[in-house]
Design a protein that fits this description.
Elements (H helix, E strand, L loop, with lengths): L33 H11 L4 E2 L2 H6 L13 E4 L3 H14 L3 E4 L14 E4 L7 E4 L4 E4 L5 H9 L3 E2 L12 H7 L12 H4 E7 L5 E3 L5 H8 L1 H15 L2 H10 L12 H4 L3 H9 L8 E8 L1 E2 L3 E9 L2 H14 L3 E6 H6 L18 E9 L2 H16 L18 H12 L1 H7 L6 E8 L5 H14 L6 E4 L4 E8 L4 H21 L18 H5 L1 H14 L54 H13 L5 H16 L6 H5 L6 H12 L2 H12 L1 H15 L4 H14 L30 E4 L2 H5 L11 H11 L4 E2 L11 H4 L4 H18 L7 E3 L2 H10 L6 H9 L2 E3 H9 L9 E6 L3 H6 L2 H11 E5 L13 H4 L1 H7 L1 H8 L5 E4 L2 H11 L3 E3 H8 L4
Parallel strand pairs: 2-4, 3-4, 18-19, 18-20, 20-21, 22-23, 22-24, 24-25
Antiparallel strand pairs: 1-2, 5-6, 6-10, 7-11, 8-9, 8-10, 12-14, 13-14, 13-16, 15-17, 16-17
Length: 975
C-alpha cells in the first residue's frame, strides 16, 4: 500500500435521515449481473461495457424528476455497436435506452436495463455549401454546432435554453425548439435528412438516392404499414383537420402524425416520425440540417410591466413588429434570477406581480436593423412600463454584454428557481402551449392553480408562441406530496385540453410524465395510430418502453427520484447537466453532475451499506482524483455551483494529520523547494525519458499517485535561476513572476528570452516599466496547496504572499501584475477565504492584474507590430474564463498574427497546475477534441498565457505552446 495513500473512508457520509425509498438495493452493490456483463463484453469488448455500481448510478439520473438505474451501460463507438446491442436485446428480450447529453426533462434518457451512451464518440460537424447545410453527429452539442456554423454566418434553427449542453441528437429526438424556433425553425421543418438505425438493425439514410427501394427490400412490412397508415389518415378528413390544427401550436406530445400528411414516400414519413420520437423508434446516428442565417445585428430590451395581463397584451404587438423572440418572465422568476451571476442584485426586490418581456429583433442588414429600431419604438410608445427597481432601464440596447446578461437570466429560469426550492425536494419542469391570443388567461389560470395546491407560483416561457414553462417542487419520499402532485396534474391537464385545446408538451417531448394524458389530448383514434406506429417499427418492444406511450394511468408517479441533502456547495443542484460539456474528466471518469449524483446515492443508503462501500471504492479516483478542480463547472452552471470546490474539500477530508503538516512545511520552505525542482529538471535534461518514466512510476507506487508526478516528455528544462534586474523607482507596476515561470523554462527552441525578461522588455518598450522584487522567490499564489485540499499549507502561503504584496506594492499604490492566469486567479480571488481578517483588509486594496490585461490595456497602445506571423492558434485557459481575460488573449493574438484560430473545443486542458502530471490521462482526455482540431491545421504560433497549460497542450499536440507575451515581445522589437 502506498505510504501516503488517501483515506477513502473519510468520505463516508453521516446522515440522520433513514434509507430512502428509491435507494439502490444491497444486492446490486456488485453492479451488472455477471451473465449480462459477460455476454456484452463478448460482443463488444471490455472497454465499451460499464458495469460497476458507480457507473450504473451515475447514469441513473438526468435533468428530469425520474430515476431508473440501468443494469449495464454500453459506450457505443459506431453504428455497428448500436446494431449489436439491438440484436442482443431482441434475442434476449431486453430493453434499450439511448442517452446523449441527459438534459431531457421528462425521463426519456433513462432506462432500467441496457443504457447506451451515444455522446462520447458521436461528435463532429461537417459544413456543407458554405454553411447552408450541416452534417452533424448526434452527440454534438447545439452550442458547438453553432460555433462552427457562426464562422459561416449561419446557425441551427432550434435554440433551446440548454443549447450549451443539449446534444443535436436529443434535440431532434425531442423536437426541442427554444426561444426563436417556434413551429417553423424546429427540427421537423429544418432536418433535411437523417441516418437511423431501426430496432431491427436496419440502417436507413433518408437522403440516399435509393433509400425507398432499400427500405422496401429490408423492411417490407414496415414499408407497407407506413404507406397504409398514410392512406388511412388521409381518407379521414376530420382526422386530417385535427392533426393540422394540433401542429399550428408548438406540440411534441406523442408521435409526429403530420409526417403521414407531409411525406410522399415511406422514407419521407420515417424521417418525420423520427423527429420527436424520443429514442423509441430507432437511433438517430447522423443528421443533415438546413441552417438559418446568423443575423448579427440585434436590438434587445428587457421591458417591465405592472402585471401579467399588461405584458401578455404587448406580445402580439411585438410579434407583428417583427420581433424574433418575445420571452416572458413573471415576478417570482425574476426574483429567483437575482442569484444568477451578472444579474443585478436588486431583482430580489421586484414585486411578485411585475412581469417582464425579453424582446429581441435580429437583422442581417443595417437597413433592416434601422427598420426594427423604428418598429420597436412605435410599440414601446404605446406601452405602460414600470421600473420596479433601480437597475431597470426599459431601454432597447445593442451592447453585447447587456444582451448576454438578459439572455443568461432567461436561460437560467429552471436552475434559478430550482436553486430556491426547499432542500430535499424534487423539481419537475412542465411545458405547455396555448393559442398565443389566450396567453394571459392561461398564465392567470396556471398561477391560481399553483397557489391553490400550495406550490410556489412561477412562470416563464416563449410568449411569442404561447409556450409556457413552470416548475413544481415536492418531496418524492412523502406519499402525500406525490398525491398532491398527482391531483395537480389531473386538473392541469384537463385545463390545458378542455379549456384551451392546447399542447401538454410544447417542446420538452412526452417523456414519462405525460404518457397517461396523451389520449386525453389526442383522442383514442390518433393515439391508437401512434401505438400502431410503435408496433410497426419496434415489434419486439426493445426501445424505451414507457416513454411516449404507456397505458398505465399512474406511470408519471413511478420512479420519481428523491433528492437527499448533501454538502451545501452542491445541494442546490437540480442535475440539469449544463456543467458536463466543459468538464475535463467528462470522457474519462465522471462529470460534476455525476459526482453529485453519486454523493446523493451515498446519502440514500443506510449505515454500513454495501452499496456505499462499493461507491466509495470508485469515488476516490473517479470523482475526487480526476477532478481538475478548475471550477469551469461553476461558470457553466447558471447558479454557480462549484463542484470543484467540493472535490477539493473531499481531498482535504482524506488527508491525515501527517500529510497536512508536511504540506505546511513545504509552504514554509518553498524557496528551497523551487531550487530543488529546478535542479531536478536540470538533471532530467540529461536522462532518457524512459528511465524517468519508470523511476516516477515506482515512486508513485511507493508514495501515492496523487502526490508524485508522472514524467512526460513535454516537461521543459529549468528556468534561469536569476530574475531580471529592475528598478523600483519609477515603476508603473510590481511584476509578480509566478513560480511556474521561475521553475520551468519556455518551449524548447521556441524562445530566445525567458518570459520574465520578455515582460520586462515589453513594459520598458511601452514606457510602462515594471519592478521585480528581489525577495519574490518562495512566494506563490497558493494554488499548489489549494487544489489538493491542504488547507494549512494554503493558509500559510496565502497570508505570506499577501503580506509581501502589501509591502511590494506600497500598500496597494502600484498594481501587482501576474504572468500566469491561474496564479492571477489564485492571488486575486481564491486565497481570500484563507486570509486573516487583517490580511483580508490588505487584500481589498491590492490591484491584482493579469499580464494579459496589463499588456492589452497598458502596453499595446504604445507598441507597433513590425513583423506579424501569418497564423496562430490560441488556447484560452479556464482561469482566463474565470477572470474574463479571454478577450484580451484574443486581442493580443490578433496583434501579433494575421489569422487567429480559436478551436471549437477549446476548454480546460485538465493539466490544472500539476494534476496533468499526476494524472496525465486527465489532460489527454480533456484535450482530445481540441488537439484533433489543432493538429488538423498548421500554424506559425501556438499561444496561451499559463505555463503549465502550455506544457499540457504541448504534451497532447506535440506543438510548442508558449505565452502570447513572448511572441508579442519578438514582433514588436524595433527593426
Amino acid at each position: 500500500m502506498p505510504l501516503l495513500e488517501p483515506k477513502p473512508g473519510m468520505l463516508r457520509p453521516h446522515t440522520a435521515e433513514g434509507p430512502s425509498i428509491d435507494r439502490v438495493a444491497d444486492d446490486q452493490a456488485s453492479g451488472t449481473p455477471d451473465e449480462l456483463r459477460d455476454a456484452l463484453v463478448a460482443e463488444l469488448g471490455t472497454d465499451k461495457v460499464l458495469h460497476k455500481i458507480s457507473d450504473l448510478v451515475r447514469y441513473a439520473s438526468d435533468a428530469s424528476p425520474y430515476r431508473l438505474v440501468p443494469r449495464v451501460v454500453v459506450i457505443a463507438e459506431n453504428i455497428d455497436d448500436v446494431s449489436t446491442v439491438l440484436r442482443y436485446a431482441r434475442e434476449n428480450r431486453r430493453h434499450v435506452v439511448f442517452r446523449a447529453a441527459g438534459t431531457s426533462l421528462n425521463g426519456q434518457a433513462q432506462g432500467d436495463d441496457i443504457l447506451v451512451d451515444v455522446r462520447r464518440h458521436w461528435t463532429g460537424v461537417e459544413v456543407i455549401d458554405d454553411g447552408a447545410k450541416a452534417r452533424i453527429k448526434p452527440g454534438t452539442t447545439v452550442g458547438r454546432a453553432n460555433i462552427t456554423l457562426s464562422r459561416h454566418g449561419r446557425l441551427m434553427g432550434p435554440d433551446p435554453a440548454s443549447s450549451s449542453a443539449a446534444s443535436v441528437g436529443g434535440v431532434v429526438a425531442n423536437n426541442a425548439s427554444g426561444m426563436t424556433a417556434g413551429t417553423t425553425r424546429n427540427s421537423y421543418r429544418l432536418l433535411s435528412s437523417l441516418t437511423a438505425v431501426l430496432p431491427s438493425g436496419t440502417v436507413v439514410d433518408t437522403a440516399g438516392p435509393d433509400a425507398e427501394a432499400r427500405l422496401r427490400a429490408a423492411e417490407p412490412d414496415l414499408h407497407a404499414t407506413l404507406l397504409a397508415l398514410k392512406e388511412e389518415i388521409e381518407s379521414d378528413a376530420e382526422l386530417v383537420a385535427r392533426i393540422r390544427a394540433k401542429y399550428e401550436l408548438k406540440n411534441t406530445s406523442g408521435y409526429r402524425l403530420d409526417a403521414f400528411l407531409d411525406g410522399t414516400t415511406a422514407v419521407d414519413i420515417l424521417r418525420g416520425l423520427m423527429v420527436g420520437s424520443e429514442g423509441t423508434l430507432g437511433f438517430i446516428a447522423e443528421t443533415v440540417f438546413d441552417t438559418v442565417p446568423l443575423d448579427r445585428r440585434t436590438y434587445t430590451a428587457l421591458l417591465f410591466f405592472p402585471d401579467l395581463p399588461a405584458a401578455a397584451a404587448a406580445v402580439p404587438l411585438f410579434n407583428r413588429a417583427g420581433a424574433r423572440a418575445v420571452e416572458l418572465m413573471d415576478g417570482n422568476t425574476l426574483r429567483a434570477c437575482a442569484e444568477v451571476d451578472g444579474v443585478p442584485g436588486d431583482w430580489r426586490d421586484i414585486p411578485q406581480e411585475s412581469t417582464a418581456l425579453l424582446v429581441e429583433f435580429r437583422a442581417a442588414t443595417e437597413e433592416d436593423h434601422l427598420a426594427h429600431r423604428r418598429a420597436a419604438a412605435e410599440v414601446v410608445e404605446g406601452l405602460t412600463l414600470v421600473a420596479p427597481v433601480p437597475s431597470v432601464s426599459n431601454a432597447f440596447v445593442t451592447d453585447p454584454g447587456t444582451v448576454r446578461t438578459y439572455w443568461h437570466a432567461r436561460e437560467a429560469f429552471m436552475t434559478a428557481v430550482g436553486k430556491a426550492r426547499p432542500t430535499g425536494t424534487t423539481l419537475i419542469t412542465e411545458d405547455f402551449a396555448v393559442p398565443p391570443s389566450r396567453l394571459a388567461e392561461a398564465c392567470e389560470a396556471l398561477l391560481e392553480m399553483q397557489r391553490r395546491y400550495g406550490y410556489d407560483a412561477a412562470v416563464a416561457g416563449h410568449a411569442a408562441h404561447g409556450n409556457l414553462h413552470f416548475l413544481l417542487a415536492f418531496d418524492a419520499a412523502r406519499p402525500e406530496d406525490v398525491e398532491r402532485y398527482a391531483s395537480f396534474m389531473d386538473e392541469f391537464c384537463a385545463m390545458v385540453i378542455d379549456r384551451f385545446d392546447g399542447s401538454l408538451k410544447a417542446e420538452h417531448a412526452t417523456g414519462r410524465n405525460m404518457t397517461p394524458f396523451l389520449e386525453s389530448e389526442w383522442g383514442s383514434q390518433a393515439t391508437e395510430i401512434m401505438w400502431r406506429v410503435k408496433q410497426a417499427l419496434d415489434p419486439h418492444g426493445v426501445l424505451a418502453p414507457g416513454v411516449v406511450l404507456n397505458r398505465d394511468p399512474r406511470a408519471h408517479l413511478k420512479h420519481l427520484k428523491t433528492i437527499p441533502t448533501i454538502e451545501a456547495v452542491a445541494d442546490p443542484c437540480i442535475e440539469c447537466g449544463f456543467c458536463e460539456p466543459v468538464c475535463p474528466s467528462r470522457d474519462l471518469t465522471t462529470t460534476p453532475r455525476q459526482r453529485i449524483v453519486l454523493r446523493r446515492e451515498m446519502m440514500r443508503q443506510p449505515v454500513d451499506s454495501p452499496v456505499t462501500d462499493s461507491l466509495l471504492e470508485s469515488y476516490g479516483y473517479d470523482a475526487v482524483d480526476t477532478c481538475a478542480g478548475d471550477s469551469t463547472c461553476k461558470i457553466a452552471c447558471p447558479v454557480g455551483i462549484d463542484t470543484g470546490a467540493m472535490m477539493k474539500q473531499f481531498r482535504h477530508q482524506r488527508h491525515g494529520g501527517i500529510a497536512e503538516r508536511n504540506a505546511e512545511r513545504v509552504a514554509g520552505h518553498f524557496a528551497t523547494v523551487e531550487k530543488s525542482v529546478r535542479a531536478a529538471l536540470g538533471v532530467a535534461e540529461h536522462v532518457n525519458d524512459g528511465v524517468l518514466t519508470r523511476a516516477t512510476a515506482l515512486a508513485r507506487k511507493a508514495v501515492t499517485p496523487d502526490l508524485v508526478p508522472e514524467w512526460i516528455s513535454a516537461i521543459p528544462g529549468p528556468a534561469s535561476s536569476g530574475l531580471p534586474l529592475t528598478r523600483r523607482q519609477d515603476a508603473a507596476a510590481v511584476y509578480f513572476v509566478a513560480c511556474v515561470n521561475r521553475i520551468f523554462a519556455g518551449p524548447e527552441g521556441g524562445e530566445d528570452l525567458p518570459l520574465p525578461e520578455a515582460v520586462v522588455k515589453l513594459s520598458e518598450r511601452a514606457g510602462r516599466p515594471v519592478w521585480v522584487p528581489s525577495d519574490i522567490v518562495g512566494s506563490c499564489c497558493a494554488t499548489i496547496w489549494h487544489s489538493k485540499g491542504y488547507d494549512d499549507g494554503n493558509r500559510l502561503m496565502a497570508n505570506q504572499t499577501v503580506e509581501r504584496a502589501w509591502e511590494w506594492t506600497d500598500r496597494g499604490r502600484l498594481p501587482l501584475v501576474v504572468d500566469a492566469s491561474s496564479c492571477t486567479l489564485g492571488i486575486g480571488h481564491e486565497i481570500i477565504p484563507y486570509l486573516t481578517p487583517e490580511n483580508r483588509r490588505k487584500h481589498e486594496k491590492l490591484d491584482v492584474v493579469d499580464s494579459l490585461v496589463w499588456a492589452a490595456r497598458e502596453l499595446l497602445p504604445h507598441l507597433t507590430a513590425a513583423r506579424k506571423v501569418d497564423s496562430a492558434v490560441i488556447h484560452p485557459t479556464c482561469s482566463m474564463r474565470h477572470l474574463g481575460d479571454v478577450e484580451q488573449l484574443d486581442e493580443l493574438a490578433r496583434f501579433v498574427a494575421h489569422e487567429v484560430v480559436v478551436p471549437v473545443y477549446a476548454e480546460c486542458c485538465g493539466f490544472a497546475g500539476d494534476r496533468g502530471m499526476l494524472h496525465k490521462e486527465l489532460a489527454e482526455s480533456a484535450t482530445a477534441h481540441e488537439a484533433e482540431e489543432v493538429l488538423a491545421g498548421d500554424y506559425d504560433a501556438y499561444l496561451s498565457a499559463n505555463r503549465t497549460c502550455e506544457i499540457g497542450m504541448e504534451h497532447v499536440t506535440g506543438r510548442p505552446y508558449e505565452s502570447v507575451l513572448l511572441l508579442l515581445e519578438r514582433v514588436t522589437r524595433p527593426v
